[in-house]
Write a structure and sequence with these properties.
The protein is α/β, with parallel strands linked by helices. Helix content is about 40%, strand content about 15%. The protein has 3 domains: about 70 residues, no CATH class; about 220 residues, D-Maltodextrin-Binding Protein, domain 2 (3-Layer(aba) Sandwich); about 110 residues, 3-Layer(aba) Sandwich (D-Maltodextrin-Binding Protein, domain 2).
Length: about 475
């Protein structure tokens, strides 16, 4: 992980943002967006770096990500007094313990984890039948959930200890967009890619999106990558998604039935329901979402922030279970075994051949072709902060949030990449050395360091 922003959060002379006026040693050579810090900029051990990351996240959150307020208070009170005051309210030691090497015995072993029955939830689901929760000292029950609103509400009211969520959901929940504002953490992405736009068979002659005016499309939730990718895709083809098409929220298990009944002309949905439409001979795959944005995030593992602070050992063991399962799922040679494990009634309730086509990437497209796309769906647990920033830009673009947004501050508060990097290292997996990168989406470059400029660059939108 990068260390440039891991200055002492209790020191009023340190600028944690490293803005244009910053003169710290890490910035001495200039302020290029992607410049790496000097090796001697922060001479801390790995454990000290992780503790510093937690301290920094907590302190930034206390001051609303406002560097001026934090530095002014630190200078007024002194670092030691400031640390004591914050530590008396927030259990910093417990938060730090959640990501250290030697976790103690989980404070709670019997856990309830919600999931929506889609292949994006593969690591969460398979971790039960394949023993990953048990490996890390947990007795976790995974509970099938009808849709995302139910998953959100059951998580908010404490019926679930943690849940499978869409990557935009913990951002929206933390901001209070669509629900009561409640601090959430998203320590792990469940899958990348893994979605598709499906059209009903009667539209095989309408492969140009410009022909879709008046079409009715389904997406699984408003705060979803499915909604934002569908909007992005049609807008790049000149359609206003709020004027030229209708977008309806439809629970994933109901997508196929609505397509068959003619209630939808198409949908951008999680699998296996894209492949199931082909299996049922009622739809075809127009485009995989990986061909819109290669490597885009979709679903995630999320939990209330209180789990990390009140039960740090449980949080750590749960995160290890999910990261371990996600890495196992990322290996192509394990996909057939996993398909068999997650297809039964209590999990996906789908034919094994349908799930196997999705996970292996060898599938019929409904247009007479058999394609081989091994990364049709893939699994990578690292929660890139740049992904969070992109999602926030689309929330702003389409009017789901308004006003000034602290893009990086919110992304870094919710997407706890430091925890994930540490757990990946503990388990012997490689992890990125930075948390931001640029993306090319339908030929347009997204720079996470200029999110507001990105929002304003689109001719179609509300932001």
């Amino acid at each position: 992980m990068t260390v440039k922003s891991l200055g002492d959060p209790f020191d009023g002379d340190v600028d944690l943002v490293h803005g244009a006026a910053c003169s710290c040693s890490a910035c001495a050579s200039g302020h290029a967006v992607h410049a790496a810090p000097k090796p001697d900029a922060l001479p801390l051990s790995n454990e000290a770096m992780l503790e510093r990351a937690v301290e920094s996240a907590v302190v930034r959150s206390v001051f609303g990500q406002n560097e001026f307020s934090r530095r002014s208070f630190a200078k007024l009170m002194g670092g030691a007094t400031m640390a004591g005051l914050i530590g008396s309210v927030l259990p910093l030691d417990k938060a730090k313990a959640a990501i250290l090497d030697k976790l103690g015995k989980p404070e709670k072993t019997d856990l309830k984890i919600g999931f929506v029955p889609i292949t994006c939830a593969t690591p969460i689901i398979m971790a039960q039948p394949l023993g990953f929760y048990e490996r890390h000292g947990l007795n976790a029950s995974v509970i099938k959930t009808a849709g995302w609103a139910v998953a959100r509400d059951k998580s908010l009211n404490g019926e679930y200890d943690a849940s499978h969520m869409l990557t935009p959901m913990p951002l929206a929940m933390t901001m209070g967009a669509g629900s009561t504002a409640t601090p959430y953490l998203m320590p792990a992405v469940e899958n990348i890619n893994g979605q598709a736009i499906v059209l009903a068979n009667q539209h095989k002659d309408k492969r140009d999106p410009k022909q879709w005016k008046g079409f009715k499309f389904g997406v699984p939730f408003e705060y979803s990558m499915h909604n934002f990718l569908l909007r992005y895709y049609v807008a790049e083809h000149g359609l206003d998604p709020d004027q030229d098409i209708q977008i309806r929220v439809v629970p994933p298990p109901e997508m196929v039935a609505n397509l068959r009944a003619g209630n939808l002309d198409g949908y951008l949905s999680p699998d296996p329901f894209n492949q199931r439409a082909v299996w049922e001979k009622i739809g075809f795959i127009h485009i995989l979402t990986k061909d819109i944005w290669e490597g885009h995030p979709c679903c995630a593992f999320a939990c209330p922030a209180s789990l990390a602070t009140e039960m740090p050992n449980t949080y750590g063991a749960l995160l290890k279970s999910i990261v371990d399962a996600t890495q196992y799922a990322s290996k192509a040679e394990n996909r057939v075994e996993i398909a068999e494990a997650i297809s039964p009634t209590n999990y996906l309730n789908q034919p094994v051949p349908v799930v196997t086509q999705v996970l292996t990437g060898r599938f019929a497209d409904g247009l007479g072709n058999v394609l081989n796309v091994p990364d049709r769906i893939d699994f990578d647990p690292f929660p890139w902060h740049s992904m969070g920033v992109w999602i926030l830009t689309q929330m702003k673009r389409w009017g789901y949030v308004s006003g000034d947004i602290d893009y990086k501050g919110i992304a870094e508060q919710v997407y706890v990449a430091g925890d994930t990097a540490k757990i990946m290292k503990d388990l012997g997996y490689e992890h990125p050395s930075t948390t931001y990168k640029t993306y090319s989406i339908m030929g347009k470059t997204f720079d996470p360091m200029d999110p507001e400029g990105y929002v304003k660059s689109f001719p179609i939108g509300k932001g």
